[in-house]
Task: structure prediction
Amino acid sequence: MSMTIQQALVFAVQQLTEQPDTASLDAELLLAHVLHKSRTWLHTWPEQELSTEQVEQFQQLVSRRAAGEPVAHLVGQQDFWSLTLQVTADTLIPRPETERLVELALERIPRQVSCRIADLGTGTGAIALALAKERPNCGIIATDRSAAALAVARNNARHNQIGNVQFRQGNWLDALQDEAGFDVIVSNPPYIKVTDPHLQQGDVRFEPATALKAGYTGLDDLRHIIQGALAYLEPGGWLLLEHGYDQREAVLQLLQQAGYEQVIDYTDLAGQPRVAEGRKPLQ
Result:
């Protein structure tokens, strides 16, 4: 079956009726992956004909996307910050709203100072690697309880030529091995209620449940990190946490009750509450 680039894109959009908001972008990303070209190239050469093999590969990917598989899994990577990251079914897919956490953390990390930073539940390494690239003088420890996720994160560090991150396996703060004196601790932990119907919808159906679910309130892991992080922070050190859109008040209350100061919450680019921070008292 012969098909031009333009025809292939039209075909894909017609198939992706379950993803109407992203159908055009999804089609371009999948076809660019098949052709090993950029999306710009696709629009430059719309009359270019695909080979039979390319048509078959593209149709298979479109079919899998139509069934709900995330584009990041189909192409094996996702852009985040200024990085291109490998993504597998063992990791959460890095999302644009998490870049807000990176932005806010960078505001707490002076450029020319050698700070100690920890990223808890690193997954693909997205947050740790973004911070490490922007602050090469800093030492960062990235933790995850999943050996498979850490393998992906280490590969992403090598691919992006980032050498100032250590990776450690373990559950949240336990992986820091009783070290202390961190200037900044960041985390994007699971924060979805186990009963949330969104777990049965969209891309999250294909992501590891352990990276998404956090008990019946969605606060189990956030509470654990908030209560434990004070022992690992330097006096005056900062804890920054991504949370769900409806968890702002609960997370701020947890921070205040634990004894953090300068507690505040920030919205993401969509205007949704997204990142909470608190500071360990100086005394």
Remarks:
- Residues 52-66 form the longest helix (15 residues).
- The chain has ten helices and nine strands.
- The CA atoms of residues 45 and 258 lie 59 Å apart.
- The chain has a mean pLDDT of 89.
